[in-house]
Amino acid sequence: MTKTVDSFRFISGITKRMIKNWISMEMPRPIPWTPLTKPLSECNVALLSSAGIALKDDKPFDQEGERQNPWWGDPTYRILPKTATEKDVRLYHLHIDPSYAEQDLNCLFPLQRLQEMENSGRIGCMSERHYSIMGYILKPEKLLQETVPAMIRNLKEDMADVVVLVPA
Question: CB of 146 within 8 A of CB of 27?
């Protein structure tokens, strides 16, 4: 049996039609590809989630701004340590049911699975720091101009070789 993922399941009909229309207008372009220069078993790996996850004692993602303007999304990012668990974080994404991540953070931010990969030698090591952004940003200019370059600087400081995007 083939299963289809409906990425638009939780949004209204008009919003679904608008987003599908925007996607259809997007011109295909080459995907930048950077081959690994060493085996994955020697790489430092970081995670990047688009689930709006932050440490409980960190600044929350701005949900009120999005409630007032559903076309806006908080373009900032949060840093999470490799030791973060369900008890340490909150999920601030308005389009995701947080109850699953409250039970098992690995469903949105698989830090424990990454640690298992390090322990088994499938990756060299997991980065000390990992990152989360909001995934529902319809106006990405600030995200692309400010947030992404800042995260890249941090990832270089962390000497990350690989970043795994964990879409929400």
Answer: no
CA 41/CA 166 separation, integer angstroms: 20
The tally of domains found in the chain comes to 1
List the structure tokens of 70: 């559903």
User: Beta 77-81 vs 129-133: how paired, if at all?
Assistant: antiparallel
pLDDT at 159 exceeding the cut of 90: yes
Q: Per the confidence metrics, is the pTM higher than 0.85?
A: no
pLDDT, one tens digit per residue, over 79-135 is 999 999 999 999 998 888 888 888 999 999 999 999 999 999 999 999 999 999 998
Strand ranges inside the chain, DSSP E: 44-49, 53-55, 77-81, 89-91, 125-126, 129-133, 162-166
16 within some domain: no
Concatenated DSSP letters of 140-151: -HHIIIIIHHHH
Per-residue pLDDT band for 23 (boundaries 50, 70, 90) equals confident
One DSSP character per residue, 45-77 reads: EEEEESB-EEETTSPPP-HHHHHH-TT-----E
Cα gap 145→148, rounded to integer Å: 7
Domain that holds residue 47: 31-166
Separation CA 108–CA 44 (nearest Å) = 20
